[in-house]
Amino acid sequence: MKTWLTTTDHKRIGLLYFWTAVGFFLIGGLEALVIRAQLARPEGIGVSAEVYNQMFTMHGTTMVFLALMPLSAAFFNYIVPLQIGARDVAFPRLNAFSYWVFLLGGLLLNASFVAGPLFGAAGLSVAPDAGWFGYANLTSRQFSPGPNIDFWVLGLQILGIASLAAGFNFIVTILNMRAPGMKLMRLPAFSWMTLVTQFLVITAFPVITVALVLLMFDRFFGTHFFVPAGGGDPILWQHLFWLFGHPEVYILILPAMGIISEVLPTFSRKPLFGYTVVVYSGVLIGFMGWGVWSHHMFSVGLGPIADSVFSATTMLIAVPTGVKIFNWIGTMWGGQIRFTTAMLFAVGFIAMFIIGGLSGVSHASPPADLQQTDTYYVVAHIHYVLFGGTMLGLFAGMYYWWPKMSGRRLSETLGRWHFWLTFVGMNLAFFPMHFSGLLGMPRRIYTYGAELGVTRLNEISTAGAFLLGVAVLVFLVNLWRTRTRGELAGNDPWQGATLEWATTSPPPVYNFTVIPRVESRLPLWATEHHAAMAPLPATPPEPIHVPGGSWWPLVTALGVPLIAVAALSHQLWLALAGVAVVVAGIYRWAYEPFEV
Amino acid sequence: MRPTPRLLAAILLAAAGCGGTFPQSTLTPRSDFSTAVNTLFTSIFWWAVVVFVIVEGLLLFVIIRYRRREGGVGPRPLHGHTALEIGWTLAPALILVFIAIPTMRTIFATAGRAPAGALRVEVVGHQWWWEYRSPDLGVVTANELHVPLGAPVQLEMTSADVIHSFWAPRLGGKRDLTPGRVTRIAFTADSAGEFSGQCAEFCGASHANMRLRVFVQPDSAFRTWVAGQRAEPAPPARGSPAEQGRQLFARSACIACHTIAGLPQARGIVGPNLSHVGSRTTIAGALLPNTTANLRRWIVDAPSLKPGSLMPKLTLTDADLTAIVAFLQSLQ
Amino acid sequence: MSQGHATSTGLDNRKMAFWAFIGSECLLFGSLISTYLIYKGKSLVGPYPHDILNIPFTSFSTFDLLMSSLAMVLALAAIQRGDMRQGKLWLFVTALLGLVFLGGQVYEFRSFVHEGLGLTTNLFGSTFFVLTGTHGAHVTVGVIWLLTHWVQALRGKLGPAQAMTVEITGLYWHFVDVVWIVIFTLVYLLQ
User: Fold this and answer.
1) Which residues pair with B176 in a beta bridge?
2) Residue B176: its H or E element
3) Which residues are CB-contacts of A335 (< 8 A; sequence separation ≥ 6)?
4) Are strands B183-188 and B152-159 parallel, antiparallel or unpaired?
5) Which of A117, A221, A555, B10 is deepest in the core (most CB within 10 A)?
6) Is there a contact between B296 and B321 (Cβ–Cβ < 8 Å)?
């Protein structure tokens, strides 16, 4: 137990991220099931408006910040140092700090479900209830007087700290900790997409931090940044939020694109087709992601010129995205495809992401978007991209890398069940939403009239959502039974090409007995110009120093939510205590002997 | 490559698996605005279908054709193909140009400025109802918008509290109502009838209950309606339950929030103007049909029908309630 | 931490992380400054910037902060060549000039409040205090950091071997200084 609390091993931290994110994914999934159950019938099944609004707000917030991002982070942590031939990340203690802050931020957000009595609220739950993008001025104290939005503002700021710290860490890790010979253009595609993602994190999160700080000042200190009565403009919130929010979309999708760029070549027995193009298009998407934010705001009425410009940039960004799809198909072309579960999910990603991309193009056209935005059509789009895209990609990663992370393969039989239930379930759940949206059903409504004519469509969506729930249960069973009954993986169960497969499964704490020297982009495969890398020695030829753990990342992290709780409860002493804990933690951290 | 929008609508409705009337369908436009948008969407839709069929077809072909076979030789390690990659970069770019050009045209056509002489209506969003004010006509009403058939209408919209979004799918597309700003929609309806819509931007507890109706009327019917709205409602007959209700209303808490022309005590502006509430087809933010039973339920316990509603629960005797309902129904 | 380790790029890990951090900070201050500029002239009531901003006084503060950057350069150079006597002196001078700047900011905030501009008075007050307050918080962290080095130096625990740590502190200090120049120009000079 103690070794887990003090661990600075990137692999253990990766596993902590993984299990925590799976936990939050289940919570977010249950919230989705409440939403779908309520919508199965016109006039609902009795979920109140207040509870429903909390459910969709927390579902979105949880899935984006507490499930998808940290599941990607689990793979950044576990896999990236292995892929680049490093013994750990550049700043192992900072890495532990990121995890603890993420965990505590997530717990704080979810504590709102049971914190009602502490705030004298009528019910148990005071969960955030203004949607995952919390549009001002609904979030002002006047229109949201309870602590609900405070939890959201403070929780997201804490999660931002975790993401930023991890961002700096992984940028340095990938740029500086590569094995000899691992030039940037030999970096595995997943590590490349991680690098781009981290650059987006460290540039996008400061923007939402500022937005949240301004909102916090409005709510706690009575400023008017987003309050029209004081001259403030609620639209500024939208600009700041989406200036963050659109890069955030790529923060969510690029890691999954990286994963399938590893899975497809391995199971086609072919190198990634157009590696250079896949890398550069990823970088280009990262840059262009900054120039499209107002396409979330076509209904605001920014004027025809602004609408035209953002429409054009948005259509432009579809090009590098489309190119990636062709490159993935090109990777499989002429290959020898093995349909393992990981491969099924990777192909599923391509098939579903195409649909999400095409509906995205229809949003890129502002007049068309005027009919689609804030309807179930856009809900369909976001789920084809973030579930059909990101989540299927992450599942592909789980089946691909779980043998490396646990030493055992997940069951392929259960895996196939998992895949097909997911595939059928998601299409049943999300495809009809295109129609319900076009037929006039807005998003975020807890009730609708039978006369709208979308009852049948909603029944199908609900059935699909519950099928997805079954699929997730199958996955959990698979994870559980693999702990003891999974087939032993060996170093390289899939004949992969990248360095993580050169070491044991799971790898020793120092990762590699000797740091490999990299001669090609696919070190473990023989290519025209290069022989496959020689196996590493089974035991280290010379002793490897492994740093011990440290308590200080955890201690420092514990101070952060204290400050947030102080803000929620208006206790100045608690805030000072929190600051004291953080400062003390940083000093002990800075001056403790700890070597890499 | 250019099937009519109607075909698309038919396909989608068939796919929806039921032949309802779909009062909020974006695919059965009844104004210049919605028709322009629908035409544009249709062309995007068919481009998307073409791309979908080609790319998903290619994907299917590849995963079937290149499955691993026993004893097959190892694949050629192909790293890339420059000409091919340039080709598949340009092809989608070209398709996007075909989408972008009509998009830009439609953006300017639907920018929201009606020609001079259009009927101006100020729309004010409230949690959770719509206020319509037409200074040109001297009419103030709520939730049910009346517009003339075939004449341009200019909506000038703002909000009294949080951001809302006016969405009457078959007529006017969608545009946000933002406090402190004025946004515009312009449309010319091309069919008479009753059209429904609702708020599209999440605006708090009862967002789902913020519905609206638009009545498109031929010129004469529209003028009759305007005349009726401009006039003060006829005072109820002496001794009738309505006349009793009028007195109750004038002494009640109702007057703090509601205005009724001809009832000097009722000057509140927090809630909807009730001068002609009896002539409306719906109540409570176009949520419920305007029936005696619904009026009674609404007056006694509005928050149970519309969570978060500013209108409080009222404790009334059965007789008083009957009288007030009779009075409201008399406001034609 | 990884001092002395060979890195793939040759750049020290901590230094690279710090450059990334500064990039991130640019977006933070960029967002705050944009907010200030967007709300410029949108205040519904006074006092307005020209009523209240004291350019001669703030010019002195700006000069003070610029001089502190110079002192920082001298401190780092001294520590790098192992001259800890000079190193200690200039570290202290840098921190002291930082404290003078903070004292000036406290004085400025107090006089503004006295003249009727509070955090919630109008948009100018809100944007001004949040922007310059965030900068002041950065200066405070910098001063604490510098004083920590100074105390370590007094205890004989800071020498040329720790020059990289001081160099990173210097990077931070210069960055905070540059941000102030931008704020001074946009908020005070271009009213």
Assistant:
1) B165
2) strand B173-177
3) A268, A269, A270, B66, B75
4) antiparallel
5) A555
6) yes
Residues 6+ apart with CB under 8 A from A6: A96, A548, A549, A550, A551, A554
Burial of B76 by CB count in 10 Å (0-12 exposed, 13-18 middle, 19+ buried)? Answer: exposed
pLDDT tens track for C15-47:
999 999 999 999 999 999 999 999 999 999 989
Residue B214 CA from chain centroid, whole number? 8
Strand, helix or coil for residue B190: coil
Distance (Å) of CA A502 to CA A18, A135, A514, B164: 23, 49, 11, 57
The pLDDT mean for chain A works out to: 95
Chain B residue numbers touching A375 (CB-CB < 8 A): 200
Share of chain C above pLDDT 70, in %: 97
> Which two three-digit tokens encode residue A441?
């059903």
Task: Tell me the backbone φ, ψ of residue A273, rounded to 5 degrees.
Answer: -70, 125
Asked if C8 and A175 come within 8 Å (Cβ–Cβ), the reply is: yes
As a whole-number percent, the residues of chain A with pLDDT over 70 amount to 100
pLDDT at B10: 63
Selecting from A143, A319, A367 the residue whose C-beta is nearest the C-beta of B93 gives: A319
The answer to whether C6 contacts chain A (CB < 8 Å) is no
Kindly state whether A277 is in contact with chain B, defined as any CB-CB distance less than 8 angstroms.
yes
CA distances from A79 to A263, A404, A562 (A): 13, 9, 32
Answer yes or no: are the C-beta atoms of A566 and A21 closer than 8 Å.
Answer: no
Identify from A8, A176, A184 which residue to disrupt to test chain C contact, counting C C-beta atoms within 10 A and taking the largest count.
A176
Chains A and B touch (3+ CB pairs under 8 A): yes
| Rounded-to-integer distance, Cα A104 and Cα A162, Å | 10
Segment A18-58, tens digit of pLDDT: 999 999 999 999 999 999 999 999 999 999 999 999 999 99
C16 contacts chain A (CB < 8 A): yes
A234 contacts in B (CB within 8 Å)? Answer: 162-163, 178-180
The answer for residues whose C-beta is within 8 angstroms of residue B317's C-beta and 6 or more apart is none
In this structure, which amino acid lies at residue A362?
S
The string of DSSP letters for B206-268 reads TGGG-EEEEEEE-HHHHHHHHHHHHSPPPPPPTTSHHHHHHHHHHHSGGGGT-B-TT-TT-B-
Element (H, E) at A433: helix A412-438
Q: Which two tokens stand for residue A543?
A: 């002793």
Residue A131 DSSP SS3: coil
For the cut 90, the answer to whether the pLDDT of residue B11 exceeds it is: no
| ipTM attached to this prediction | 0.95
- Residue A362 with chain B: CB contacts under 8 Å: 41, 44-45, 48
pLDDT tier for residue C148 given thresholds of 50, 70 and 90: very high
What's the sign of the alpha-carbon dihedral A331, A332, A335, A341? Answer: positive
The residue in chain C having the minimum alpha-carbon distance to the alpha carbon of residue A216 is C130
Residue B328: how many other CB atoms lie within 10 Å: 24
Kindly report the backbone phi and psi dihedral angles of residue B194, in degrees, each rounded to the nearest multiple of 5, phi listed first. Answer: -110, 130
**Alpha carbons C141 and C129: distance in angstroms, whole number:** 18
Spatial separation of the C-alpha atoms in residues A569 and A567, rounded to whole Å:
6
The DSSP code for A293 is G
Inspect the interface and report whether the beta carbons of C35 and A169 lie closer than 8 Å.
Answer: no
Q: How many CB pairs under 8 A join A and C?
A: 108
Which residues have C-beta within 8 Å of that of residue A571, sequence separation ≥ 6? A565
Q: Which of residues 457-516 of A touch B (CB under 8 A)?
A: 457
Per mean pLDDT, which range of A251-265, B14-28, B80-94, B315-329 is the poorest?
B14-28
| Rounded Cα gap, residues C159 and C82, in angstroms | 7
